[in-house]
Amino acid sequence: MTGFTLTLTTALSLLGLVIAFFYMKKVTGVPLDLGLEEKDASRLRFIHGAIAKGAMAFLKAEYRVLFVFMVAFAIFIGLVINYNVYDASHTEVTGKVMGWYTAVAFLFGALISVASGYIGMKVATAGNARTTVSAKADIGSAYKVAINSGAVMGFALVGLATLGLVLIYLFMSWALADIGQHNNHVLMEVIAGFGLGGSTIALFARVGGGIFTKAADVGADLVGKVEQGIPEDDPRNPAVIADNVGDNVGDVAGMGADLFGSCAESTCAAMVISAIAFAGDPNALLYPILISAVGIPVSLITKLLVGVKTEDDVAPALMKLLIISSVLMAVIMYPLTKMLIPDTFVILEGGDSYSNMGVYWCFLSGLIAGLAVGLLTGYYTSENYAPVKEVAKSTETGVATNIIYGLALGYKSTVLPYLCIAVSIFVSWQLAGMYGVAIASLGMLGTLVIALMIDAYGPVADNAGGIAEMVGLESEVRRRTDILDSAGNTTAAIGKGFAIGAAILTSLALFAAFLTASNAMLISKGLPEVSVNLLDPLVYTSLFIGAVLPFLFTAMTMKSVGKAAFDMIEEVRRQFRDIPGIMEGTGEPDYAQCVDISTKAALREMIAPGILIMATPLVAGWLFGVSAVAGILAGSLVAGGVLAISSSNSGGAWDNAKKFIEAGNHGGKGSEEHKAAVVGDTVGDPLKDTSGPSLNILIKLSAILSLVFAPFFVEYGGVLLKYLG
């Protein structure tokens, strides 16, 4: 039985990579010129190449900047987290310093995150044009290419995440073999650097990608649709290639890095607590990694069970993927939990006793909460339901009422998801304490492969429609890709809601792990534990600071999109004005210049929000200690989650209200209602694709950063308080 969890997890991780390779070959095996005349095939290859080239150029430029930052920050980790490991008597030290080990784990996590984003982007940009040509045959063929493209992202990312955690665990266990079981929490705290590396990449990928895509989208919509009156994805629009590039860098690379971070961070949080509860039981210790790994075969079975034959099958198929995979996970994890987790256990000596069935119910509560949040997000953002239809109808009285209705929808949509998450937290805490919350967060991420699959499907389908329009293919092709895209818009909103819900539970798990690790280190030094009491003025004051952080961050990212969009609008207007024959179709727009503007703006504007999020807990911990950091984490978690859900759902509702009108309702395309809806969608774009999704990284990154730097706060924190006496 010893090593069972490690062996099974490794095998399933490798299986995920094999499946990803298989689906990648299926996608790239579709000829780009399938069923096209030479003129159309040549045009399609040009547009496909421009989108792929622009997307990869942005990634390479972003990764060059991030490489310098990651190396510098790894050196900072190595120098600052220079703490010693105490032996069981609390009086002697082993002489082992951990900072450089944490730095290695940090760089490894960043590398895996970069690889995941790169693979997802590569396949998404390969699948978009192939979805277009497949749509000439039938809707089922186009769906297969789009969902297979998403499958590569899902299986590759989860396979890499779980395999990366196994490898870093094995390496660190070997490197730190002499620290003793009483210091197992230190080993796991070092491994938490892996999650920090992934989350740091995710922050810049989300913020940078979001600024890129929305600058292009806003510029393309306001000048193209509103000022020039040309359709969406019209090849005469200079920003149209940048807009399609942005769909990939924001929703593929950004979302992939985001959910990779959630997976790594939730697992690390659970393992930090596991190291204390199950110090001598490697199977129970590695149970958190197995949860994500089991999702790989479950997702493969689910994908094979669900197909599309008619146009009416598309949207239900995507929802079936989520529901079936959730049911299968619930069934499979029951025997595994009973087998791997001891019948009874305690987390801290002298604390409450918990059972393995309690752990299973914690997993199930997170799984159900994740599904509920996803379905609720779909309800509030799909044009098939009353909330979005109300927003669409509000355009009959102008832009102002459209904005008011969209904001009201976003605020209202936070209530039920938060109640679902709150119930999951309460149940988990009652059944297995802090460990239960960490397992609940992994339960929510149990269907991560499927969540990534249907999310990456969205931009592939969206690009496919844009390519069909730019190539000038027959209207039936565009109609089919629009059906795929419409379903993808809803699933993209569900994916964002799922990511936010997972981030809230992940952050709470990391918060618990941060307190657990800090207290374990204090005890190892023979010092009293820290108590986080809301009646403590320092904790209460820090709550207020944490609560305003998400709003300051949102203001910064929204303004960044506005500044970048201003540059884009000026460039698009200039090209319409100065390049002869664009509107007549005889002049060729300078697409590359618009891609370059978005790239430079994204790289420039992503720095300040990143510094804000990473510097705040470090400075607070150094000046005021562990209690202040705990208050900031709690404040940003509660406020940030609400703001993230509201922003994402308002933006998603405005987008789908516009599409509902474009389908022929409330005056249809070109009407005053349509123009009002376009403005609402433009306001919502940075909310749903930049600020909203980035907020879930804010709350996760703050928490994982605090966990990794817990040794620094314990050793050197509170300098201002010590100075003031």
* Uncertain segments: none
Number of helices: 22
Q: Strand arrangement, largest sheet?
A: 1-2
Q: What is the terminal-to-terminal distance? A: 54 Å
Please tell me the overall pLDDT.
Answer: 84
**Major sheet summary line:** 2 strands, antiparallel
The total strand number stands at: 4
Helix content: over 70%
Whole-number count of domains: 1
Secondary-structure-derived class = mainly alpha
Radius of gyration over alpha carbons? 25 Å
**How much of the sequence is in beta strands?**
under 5%
What general outline do the C-alpha atoms trace? globular
One letter per element, helices H and strands E, the order comes to HHEEHHHHHHHEEHHHHHHHHHHHHH
Describe the structure.
By secondary structure, this protein is an all-alpha fold. The chain has one domain (4-724). The protein has helices at 4-28, 38-80, 99-134, 139-175, 184-227, 240-277, 282-285, 287-305, 314-340, 356-381, 386-393, 399-412, 415-444, 448-471, 475-524, 537-578, 591-605, 607-624, 626-662, 672-708, 710-716, 719-724; strands at residues 84-86, 93-97, 344-346, 353-355. 63% of the residues are buried.
